[in-house]
Each structure stands twice: as C-alpha cells, then as structure tokens.
C-alpha cells in the first residue's frame, strides 16, 4: 500500500501542476498578452515535463493538453494544438536521454529551436484561409517565440529543466 | 512474429508520435463535426464548474477608466434618447397607419467573460451563463459597441462564444446609407472583408455595417463594423470593402446575450 502511494505521488504532483497550469492559462494568460498573442503557459509546462519524463510522456501529455486547448477554442482549427504539442513532446522528450551527452549550449539551442518551430507551425496553421500579409504572420511568430523564450528562461532559473548530472 | 513485436517496441516512440500526428490531422480535417461539438460541450461544462479568480486590483483600475467612458456615453445617450423618443412617436404613428404589428422586444442576458480560451491566439470567449439562464446555442452575443459573435457550446453554467473574428464566421450585412447587401468574411485581427458590393454602390470609409436580418440567428440592424477602405480592382465587377469590427473581443468584460430574438420567440 505504502509502495503504491509512493509511486502515485509523482503522478499526483504532475496532475496537480497540470490543473494549475490549465487554470493559469484560462484565467491569467490574458493579463500577460501582447496584441493578439497571449503566452502559452501550457507549452512551457510541456517542455519541462517532457524533458524530465521522456518522449512517451511528452507525446501523450502534448496530445492531451493540445486537444484540451483546442476544445476551449473555436472548432475551426481543432487538432492544431494537439499536432504541435505532440511534436514538441517528442522533440523535447529527446533531452531525457541525452543529458550526459549534450552540452548546456546545445540543450539551450535545442529548446529555443523547438519554441521557434512551435511558433512557426502553429501560427501558420492559424493563418490558413485568412488573407493576412506575410509581415503580420512573421510578427505573430516572432511575438509568440519571444514570449515563450522569456518565460522559459525565467522558469529555468527557478526550476532546472532536467535533474542535475550529479 | 517476435521480430515484428521487437521492431514495433524499438520504434514505439516514433510510432506513437506518428499516431498522434495522424489523429491531429484527422481532427483538423473533420473540424466541426457532431462528435467535436459533443466533446466541446463536455469541456465547457468542466470550465463552468471550475472556480474562476476575481482580479480585484485589475478590476479597480479598469473600472475607473470604464466609469469615465460610461459617463460620457450616458450623456451622449441622454441626448440621443430625446431624439429617439421623438422618432419613436413618429414611428408608432406610421406603424399604426400601416397596421404593422409591434415587434417583440429583445431580451438581453448580461454575462461576464470568465475566460478567453486556452490557446495563445484568441478565437473564443467563455461566459458565465448557460442553459440555466436561458442561453442556447446560436444566440447572438453583443458588446456595447456592436456584435461580438454567437454562442456555440452551452453548458448549464457556462457557454463558449464563437467570435466574429473566427475564420469560419460568415454574416449577411448591409453597408452604408443605401443598405447595400454583402457577405462579411473575417480577415486576420480586427479586420474583415465585405464581398458582393457592386462598383456603382455608394460605399465610403466610415459607413456603418449592420446585420441585414437575412438570418435566423441575427436580427437586423445590429452594429457590426465600420468601413475602413474600399478597394476597386480594374476588371472586376465588385469592389472589395475592408471593414473594422466595432466590438473588441480582447477587451470585453461584460457582454449581452440575446435570449429572445428569433421568429419563434
């Protein structure tokens, strides 16, 4: 019984954080918005969770949270968040097995590259079918990337993205 | 057989990712299906149950500014009201003369915006009213400045509103003093395009865009947008009218749901 409880504690912790992040995204993200773009706190949570728990958890978590995000929005782009978040989960989950091989600089490049990739794919899907200029698309990609990068950088000072090597 | 299982196990992460991508693409292609709406109703119900925080400090700051704007509006509306009262009397007399039946007045349900969705791009808002307050899907939602959208998914205590800025939103409108009919299609951000406006129509920047009434959802003469630009392309029979929405979805705190508007109401 005690062993079962011990194995459940990390899972309960993730679920508690997950619910907190969803609530923060629903009710707080608007306060931090710049123009039409709001910070994607769920993406930040996914990056930390995938890096810690690996690809499989990353993909499953990414797909679930992405689908949840899609369901709170307009159904005209149902699946857009699920798609990009699954890709992010897989990509960042790779870090889980490479922490003894990659240097911190490569890890940084990898994470910020993933954030940029997320911004490019998601904003491109969102703009499909709307007559928007390439300049507007570029500005939205840049804005989303900058917002996510700033939050990830700030969070990494508080929480290490991966357990220490020692 | 064992080799196959070993191979599948070896590539399990890649296969799982491909499966997730495949399902996501299927969702993107099927989009607004009945199953999707059922799933969304479930998530709307969950949002309705969740407690939502009350940002006191932010409210005080925004209420102060809002109070000033509302006072100015009150003065404007008081002046306008005198004119309207006069026009209403005249209208009543003319209606009696033409034996028009009196129109059913609209019933408005005040609602608070409790969330703006979980995506990084704004496409919906969530209200704190639902079926318990008489709200049903496809009810028009208004802000002080004009039409904001329509209810899409409704739970007992919450409802999701499809915003007028959503890519799948289409609206029959009339433009300018002549009331030229056209179809409004959203562009990116606060802009939209009205198509089907012939070149010889008198449409100018600053003209009002109102609902035409050719719809079971929206009554006529609801304010929608203002004409921003009229683009005439040589060789085309129709001009492209770019309009700017009057209601600002990202700033709306309180909105009105029209709960009694249709022909059956």
Give a quick summary of the entry.
The complex is a heterodimer of chains A (166) and B (265). By secondary structure, chain A is mainly alpha-helical.
Task: Give an overview of the whole structure.
The complex is a heterodimer of chains A (166) and B (265). Chain A has 166 residues and is mostly helical. Helix content of chain A is 72%, strand content 0%. Chain A starts with a helix and ends in an 8-residue tail after the last helix. The radius of gyration of chain A is 16 Å and the shape is globular. Chain B has a domain at 171-245: Rod shape-determining protein MreC, domain 2 (Thrombin, subunit H, Beta Barrel). Chain B has helices at 2-10, 12-30, 34-49, 56-98, and strands spanning 107-115, 124-127, 140-142, 147-154, 159-163, 171-175, 180-186, 191-198, 208-211, 223-231, 238-245, 254-260. In chain B, the strands form two sheets. Chain B has a six-stranded antiparallel beta barrel. In chain B, strands 6-7-8-11-10-9 form a six-stranded antiparallel β-barrel. In chain B, strand 7 (180-186) and strand 8 form a beta hairpin. Chains A and B meet through helix 1, helix 3, helix 4, helix 5 and helix 6 of A and helix 2, helix 3 and strand 5 of B.
């Amino acid at each position: 019984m005690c062993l079962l409880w011990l194995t459940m504690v990390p899972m309960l912790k993730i679920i508690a954080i997950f619910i907190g992040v969803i609530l923060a995204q629903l009710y707080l993200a608007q306060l931090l918005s710049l123009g039409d773009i709001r910070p994607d706190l769920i993406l930040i949570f996914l990056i930390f969770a995938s890096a810690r728990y690996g690809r499989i958890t990353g993909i499953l978590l990414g797909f679930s949270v992405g689908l949840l995000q899609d369901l709170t929005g307009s159904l005209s782009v149902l699946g857009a968040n699920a798609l990009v978040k699954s890709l992010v989960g897989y990509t960042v989950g790779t870090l889980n097995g490479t922490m003894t091989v990659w240097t911190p600089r490569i890890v940084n490049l990898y994470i910020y590259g993933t954030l940029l990739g997320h911004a490019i794919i998601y904003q491109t899907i969102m703009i499909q079918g709307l007559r928007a200029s390439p300049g507007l698309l570029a500005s939205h990609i840049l804005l989303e990337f900058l917002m996510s990068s700033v939050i990830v950088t700030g969070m990494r000072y508080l929480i290490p993205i991966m357990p220490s090597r020692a | 057989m064992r080799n196959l299982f070993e191979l599948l196990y070896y590539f399990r992460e890649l296969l799982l990712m491909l499966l997730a991508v495949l399902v996501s693409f299927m969702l993107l292609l099927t989009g607004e299906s009945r199953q999707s709406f059922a799933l969304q109703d479930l998530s709307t119900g969950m949002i309705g149950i969740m407690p939502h925080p009350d940002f006191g400090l932010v409210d005080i700051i925004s209420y102060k500014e809002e109070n000033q704007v509302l006072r100015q509006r009150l003065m404007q509306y008081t002046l306008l009201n005198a004119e309207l009262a006069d026009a209403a009397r005249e209208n009543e007399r003319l209606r009696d003369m033409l034996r028009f039946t009196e129109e059913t007045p609209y019933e408005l349900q005040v609602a608070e915006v409790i969330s703006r969705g979980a995506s990084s791009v704004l496409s919906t808002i969530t209200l704190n009213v639902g079926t318990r307050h008489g709200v049903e899907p496809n009810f028009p939602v208004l802000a002080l400045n004009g039409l904001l959208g329509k209810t899409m998914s409704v739970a007992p205590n919450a409802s999701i509103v499809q915003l007028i800025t959503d890519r799948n939103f289409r609206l029959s409108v009339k433009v300018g003093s002549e009331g030229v009919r056209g179809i409004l299609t959203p562009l990116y951000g606060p802009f939209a395009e009205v198509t089907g406006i012939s070149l010889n129509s008198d449409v100018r920047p600053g003209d009002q865009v109102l609902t035409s009434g050719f719809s079971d959802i929206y009554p006529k003469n609801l304010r929608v947008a203002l004409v921003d630009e009229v683009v005439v392309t040589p060789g085309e029979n129709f001009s492209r009218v770019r309009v700017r929405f009057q209601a600002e979805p990202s700033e709306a705190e309180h909105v009105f749901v029209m709960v009694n508007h249709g022909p059956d109401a």
